[in-house]
From TrEMBL, chain B:
<feature type="transmembrane region" description="Helical">
    <location>
        <begin position="182"/>
        <end position="200"/>
    </location>
</feature>
<comment type="similarity">
    <text>Belongs to the ABC-2 integral membrane protein family.</text>
</comment>
<keyword id="KW-0812">Transmembrane</keyword>
<feature type="transmembrane region" description="Helical">
    <location>
        <begin position="116"/>
        <end position="143"/>
    </location>
</feature>
<dbReference type="GO" id="GO:0140359">
    <property type="term" value="F:ABC-type transporter activity"/>
</dbReference>
<dbReference type="InterPro" id="IPR047817">
    <property type="entry name" value="ABC2_TM_bact-type"/>
</dbReference>
<dbReference type="GO" id="GO:0043190">
    <property type="term" value="C:ATP-binding cassette (ABC) transporter complex"/>
</dbReference>
<protein>
    <recommendedName>
        <fullName>Transport permease protein</fullName>
    </recommendedName>
</protein>
<keyword id="KW-0472">Membrane</keyword>
<feature type="domain" description="ABC transmembrane type-2">
    <location>
        <begin position="35"/>
        <end position="261"/>
    </location>
</feature>
<dbReference type="InterPro" id="IPR000412">
    <property type="entry name" value="ABC_2_transport"/>
</dbReference>
<dbReference type="GO" id="GO:0046677">
    <property type="term" value="P:response to antibiotic"/>
</dbReference>
<feature type="transmembrane region" description="Helical">
    <location>
        <begin position="34"/>
        <end position="53"/>
    </location>
</feature>
<dbReference type="Pfam" id="PF01061">
    <property type="entry name" value="ABC2_membrane"/>
</dbReference>
<keyword id="KW-1003">Cell membrane</keyword>
<keyword id="KW-0813">Transport</keyword>
<feature type="transmembrane region" description="Helical">
    <location>
        <begin position="240"/>
        <end position="258"/>
    </location>
</feature>
Amino acid sequence: MPVASEKTGAMSSRSSRIAITADRLVKRYKKKTAVNDISLEIHHGETFGILGANGAGKTTTVEMLAGLRTPTEGTVRIWGLDPLADRARVRQILGVQLQQAYMHGALTARELVDLYRSFYPNPLDAEQALAMVDLLDKAKTKFDNLSGGQMQRLSIALALIGQPQVVILDELTTGLDPRARRRIWATIEALEEQTVILVSHAMDEVERLCNRVALIDAGRIIALGSPQELREKAGAATLEDAFVSLTGKQIHDEENEDSTL
Amino acid sequence: MTSPADTHIEPRRPGAVAWLRLTQAEARMTVRDTAGLVVPLGLPLLILVMQAISFDDVNQQLPSGVTVLSYYLLPVVVTLVIATIAVINMPSFLAMYRKTKVLRRLAVTPASPAMLLVAQMVVSFIQVLVGIGVAYGVAVLFFGASLPQSPLTAAAVLLAACAAMYGVGMIVASVSPTPNSAVAIGLIAFFGLAALGGMFGPVENLPDSLQQVAGWLPFASAVEAFQHAWVAEAVPAQNWTVLVLSAVVGAAVAAALFRWE
């Protein structure tokens, strides 16, 4: 995988710099512990994958990293800042694509891009943002009238529009056709200076894009390493086999796993 | 280990362009939702025309120098415009944004969901002015209505009435879990307040006990305050108190109960 190794090379020069720290994160709901003592250090310039079966705690984890949920215990730091207490600072360097997030449905793709551009000090050019996700020809189409895949692509463009230093992508290419997936992968691969957290069910995507991967099961990290290290650890030929071997579960294609907790 | 946090990030809030774009977005959402404009603009107009053609004495001059229509009917119609937009429309927009996770999406940008709330209020205030303009234009053109004899007092009452009705609207938005329930609760609140405030006939026709209750509710207080503005009399302190209290209570309830998601 030449692209992944290029990314690894770009990252190694900055590997001593920590972009994101999660320290002993716990999230409890009334009857369930969704995240149970997760600690992470993600390096500047790294693309970090989070893999897990439905309900494993992936989305809850990244929502705490993004400052959307308050941890029951533990701390999060993005560039050394608390995403809850230093909201105004963190939001300037953070770009988030949420799982199943909706937009103002009556606005066109271009109007949404212009709206989200206005929130950031140094945004991408509007046409550049639409071209990046192949939506230039849909600029005048209302969000409500876009297909599911087009909505997803626009959501990715809006996550990247502020030229964020830290990008969180939850189910990056779910619902996209193969051509669109490859286009989006190329866009993510071009983010060499940024730290990317990728939550995905797609093993090929994780193998191609991620420097390191955390396997999460029942709210805990059960394995952490590069895709190759995970395969070797499990004695498996593919990352999917490694996942099944390490978790004892099949990965599911369904969405919306733990976001409803 | 070092951290990218060594780079200083100013806690920059979105500026005037972001406020403008967000207000534009809300305005476009409102204008493109044609069905949503029918009730706040059409219902008060319908009630104005029905009442004006149903009674023979609407053009009769009162001792204060204004007609029956200007003194009794226009204050009710103006208050109806405010109440339909603030108590029915605004909460349903907020509930829809909450359900579709638009507020959640904004929460991961430098713009806060509170900015959307302010933009929504600005747009709904413009709707109020348009609604009042349309109703008043019809009243002047076809039924010989007059301007309030004290325009400054009328403007002050308009602001106080809007604040009071938005207070009620925020309570509705705070206790409504879904868009449908927001409309249902909003309609109940609207008709309850309007029935006790003169929509179906003068408050003086209500039983004494209900008149007492009505006097402490924002709809009847707004109508009575507008009546005083129309004949250039001082607005009773009780009317101001009720309008301000409604706004304060609404804000307090919203602060305690309103959930962005």
